[in-house]
What we know:
This protein has five helices and two strands. It is mainly α.
Amino acid sequence: MVRGRPLPSVREQVVALMRAEHPGLDHTGFVCRADLDHYRAAHVRLLLQEQAGETARVDELMLDRLSRHIPVAAPVDAEIDRSISFGRRLADRVASFGGSWSFIGMFALLLVLWMALNTCLLRRRRPALAPTSC
């Protein structure tokens, strides 16, 4: 019984690393778990080195721009403000007020005043209710 993983099921980049060290590698062969783990780790190391190089280039560009006082990103507020419709701006303002503490306080005060007004009007129109016996 053959133990290991068939090479056709292994990622092509990992197989390429194997073939670099073992040029006569049969494409229909198998690879044991330990060797597969070794070459997978080597593949990940290569990817990380490539990313580190790209990150270093971006870092250098950012430092250069910052040292020359050049903006790193373009301001987008004006463009966003131009693209928002009147209805959406109005809805944003209503929502910002509707969720504020000042709105909640004013609404609570309005409810209390409304209840007081209804109570006063009800007392003027009807005499006190007689208690009923059950």
